User: What shape does this take?
Amino acid sequence: MGYSFILVYLILILLVLRISTKLLVMTGLEPSQSSFQTVSMLTGAGFTTSESELILRHPVRRRIGMALILFGAFSLAVLISVISNLLSQHSHMMVLIPGAVLLTLFLLALKHPAVNSRVSHWIASRLPSRTEGGALPVEELADDERNEDVVGVQIAGDSGLIGRTLREALPKGDEVVPLVIKRDGGKIRNERWDTKLQKGDFILLYGDESVIESCCNVKLQ
Assistant: This one.
């Protein structure tokens, strides 16, 4: 019975992780970032990456994070208690099984479009009512599913971009958007589209990484 309890409890933890990851994704966080930060908070690993700022700066994400941290601390205490006393698990099983079933139903419900829409609306309603601005981490712009990211390109002496403008070099459309050109300690913003590129220029681009590799003839790491 004790081993069965541990198995059910691990399933319970897995469900909490999946639900929390789903909720973080619904706040606008990327799936890969959501899953990593969820595990980090639940286990108390305390990764101080720039991605953690995405959690701290968002009111709903902070609440999800606090719930995960508390649940993780409680889970560790419960597992230690269970392992030390495997002969008295029957009453615990009666409590955990309904909880596991409810969390499973909740996870399935979150995948339903109507429920997903309602929860997303609730999350949006919890944000500040007034328009606010602030520094945005680059990770917030990344989109793993669409292979989009903010990329820096340094113009080398043999680059085919020298003497050309970004309007000429970049494909038409919104696949790639130049943000700024850094040259000689200064920044070119207003004329970034029509400025002829020179050796040593550093261009900050946002868009599809494969398109950036192709049009700029670079290999991204």
